[in-house]
Specification:
The protein is of the alpha+beta class. The chain has a domain at about 30-80. Helices cover about 20% and strands about 10% of the residues. It contains one helix and four strands; from the N terminus they run αββββ. Strands 1-4 form a two-stranded antiparallel ribbon. The mean pLDDT is about 75.
């Protein structure tokens, strides 16, 4: 019976250590579009680097047309009548 209690205590401590270990997040890819371009991206339709209400900085990748740069969103976000729209980023190599 003592060995069962010791095993339970060890299991509880192991679970506690596992749950208290901090998670680590890794950023695999980042692009800020601050050049006002989308280098290496394959874009069609209304996709482009825009100064229309970026989240941070001066430019963001956006699907909008007829916009003017500024802090408030404006322009048309309407689709293109069923045609295909895409924004493909460049091929990236992920670390092992």
């Amino acid at each position: 019976m003592k060995s069962y209690k010791i095993l339970c205590i060890i299991a509880i401590l192991a679970i506690g250590l596992f749950l208290s270990a901090p998670a680590t997040a890794y950023q695999l890819y980042s692009e800020d579009f601050e050049s006002g371009t989308a280098p290496g991206f394959t874009l069609n339709s209304f996709w482009h680097a825009t100064g229309n209400a970026p989240y941070a900085g001066s430019f963001a990748l956006g699907f909008v047309h007829d916009e003017t740069p500024g802090s408030l969103p404006n322009g048309s976000y309407a689709g293109t009548g069923g045609s295909e729209q895409f924004a493909f980023w460049p091929k990236i190599t992920l670390p092992n």
